[in-house]
């Protein structure tokens, strides 16, 4: 009986770990898609992966909603040339994921060229089958 209970415990732990790993990978995949969509101006992907209630805090202190963030890319006020994910870690809490990482961003903001490393934290919530980013906060690191 003890070996059966031990086996069940190992099986449940393995299943929970596999679920966690799968969820972490799914969130990182969405994060990569979002970065790529910002660079390529793929508005369909941005509409899908950004939550309607998004709060986007830029490293310069400016804040955007989903609508104002996408519109700033459409208008050319915000233009991303490259975003490279250097580090990332995902913590899952049920249907919520907290991502912390570092990325290298080459962009233009109102015509001013930016080439900087950012430390960021963002939050994703799983809405049905789709993970959507609902919060972003970043700060500049010394290059």
From TrEMBL:
Keyword Signal included in the entry's annotation: yes
Keywords: Signal
Signal peptide interval: 1-18
Coiled-coil annotated residue ranges, if any: none
Domain DUF4440: 27-133
Highest rank taxon of the organism: Bacteria
Protein's name in the database: Nuclear transport factor 2 family protein
């Amino acid at each position: 009986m003890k070996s059966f209970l031990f086996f069940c415990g190992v099986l449940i732990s393995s299943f929970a770990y596999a679920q966690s790993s799968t969820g972490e990978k799914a969130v990182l995949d969405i994060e990569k898609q979002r970065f790529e969509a910002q660079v390529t101006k793929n508005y369909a992907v941005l509409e899908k992966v950004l939550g309607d209630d998004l709060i986007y805090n830029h490293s310069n202190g400016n804040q955007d909603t989903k609508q104002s963030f996408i519109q700033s890319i459409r208008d050319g006020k915000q233009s991303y040339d490259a975003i490279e994910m250097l580090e990332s870690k995902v913590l899952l809490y049920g249907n919520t994921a907290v991502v912390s990482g570092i990325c290298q961003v080459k962009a233009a903001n109102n015509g001013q060229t930016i080439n900087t490393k950012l430390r960021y934290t963002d939050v994703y919530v799983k809405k049905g089958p789709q993970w959507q980013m609902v919060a972003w906060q970043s700060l500049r690191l010394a290059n």
